[in-house]
């Protein structure tokens, strides 16, 4: 009961569909941050469509699907999500595609992107990510994974 009250006071009056993007085949250094993001979003009652991407064996599990099946599934999820949250600390063409897909449609769909990366890795992260200033995107370079929940609290509820 108290958690339901706090959830409503913070503006979380309904569960959102969230696509959490993270590197699957590239540098998986951001997986611990991705897990922290997913855990916090679940705690807030949101539906994270891509939690399976955080598993240690994700590449093996995903190999059960063809590339076409992965593309069609993920584009369908991208089309249904309200917010894309990308942990972009690792190099990934897939995460870049997903961010671009949402931002390219944002004016028509109202979808938003929250783009997070480990600030200590800034010089190794694409300048397109770090410098993203699209009005539908909020970029956050975190110093510690411990900063992520407060960032999510400020930005996820405002969909």
Architecture, according to CATH? 3-Layer(aba) Sandwich
Helix content: 40-55%
Number of strands: 5
> What structural category characterises the helix and strand content?
alpha/beta
Per CATH, the class reads Alpha Beta
Query: How are the strands ordered across the major sheet?
Result: 2-1-3-4-5
H/E series: HEHEHHEHEHEH
Q: What is the name of the CATH topology?
A: Rossmann fold
Provide structural commentary.
- It is a single chain.
- With 159 residues, the protein is α/β, with parallel strands linked by helices.
- Mean pLDDT is 85; it is low at 1-12.
- The two termini are 24 Å apart.
- It has seven helices and five strands; from the N terminus they run αβαβααβαβαβα.
- Strand 3, helix 5 and strand 4 form a beta-alpha-beta unit.
- Strands 2-1-3-4-5 form a five-stranded parallel β-sheet, sandwiched between helices.
- The chain is globular.
Name its key features:
disordered N terminus; 7 helices; 159 residues; single chain; 5-stranded parallel sheet; Rossmann fold; alpha/beta
């Amino acid at each position: 009961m108290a958690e339901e009250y706090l959830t409503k006071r913070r503006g979380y009056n309904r569960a959102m569909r969230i696509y959490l993007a993270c590197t699957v085949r590239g540098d998986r250094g951001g997986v611990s941050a991705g897990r922290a993001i997913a855990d916090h979003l679940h705690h807030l009652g949101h539906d994270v469509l891509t939690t399976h991407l955080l598993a240690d064996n994700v590449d093996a599990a995903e190999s059960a699907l063809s590339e076409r099946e992965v593309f069609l599934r993920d584009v369908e999820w991208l089309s249904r999500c309200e917010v894309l949250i990308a942990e972009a600390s690792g190099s990934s063409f897939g995460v870049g595609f997903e961010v671009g897909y949402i931002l390219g449609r944002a004016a028509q769909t109202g979808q938003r992107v929250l783009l997070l990366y480990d600030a200590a890795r800034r010089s190794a992260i694409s300048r397109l990510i770090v410098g993203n200033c699209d009005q539908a995107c909020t970029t956050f370079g975190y110093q510690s994974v411990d900063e992520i929940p407060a960032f999510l609290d400020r930005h996820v509820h405002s969909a």
